[in-house]
Design brief:
47% helix, Beta Polymerase, domain 2, 23% strand, globular, five-stranded mixed β-sheet, single chain, alpha+beta, 5 strands, 118 residues
Length: 118
């Protein structure tokens, strides 16, 4: 399965369990750890866990490897590591607090400014 197919499968799995505010961020030029981050919100700890479970189930069915899962016990922020894609499923308050979209956007801005200056 290529990266685009994986992205689509993750988004579909999140939409199946009614995730909100799904954001796909290409981080391939900012880190060698992963190519893409997908961030989504769940309305409760139970839903974040169900979202993570569905992502794992659907991607395994398509032959993807699950490298690891963190945060399932608490459910405030569940991370599913698929290698080329890292999925962050968060409660809205946790998502607002950590604001990963801004963090990675700021990293990209700094990277572009450094290139422009050099």
């Amino acid at each position: 399965m290529n990266l685009e197919e994986m992205k689509a499968a993750v988004v579909d799995a999140l939409e199946d369990v009614k995730a909100t505010d799904i954001n796909v961020i290409d981080v391939s030029e900012m880190t060698s750890l992963t190519s893409c981050m997908i961030i989504a919100s769940g309305s409760s700890n139970r839903q974040t866990k169900a979202l993570a479970d569905n992502v794992q189930k659907k991607l395994k069915e398509k032959g993807a490897d699950i490298n690891g899962v963190e945060g399932e016990r608490e459910g405030e922020w569940v991370l599913v590591d698929l290698g080329d894609i890292v999925v962050h499923i968060m409660l809205p308050a946790t998502r607002d607090y950590y604001n990963l979209e801004q963090l990675w956007g700021a990293a990209e801005s700094r990277r572009h400014n450094a290139k422009a200056a050099g």
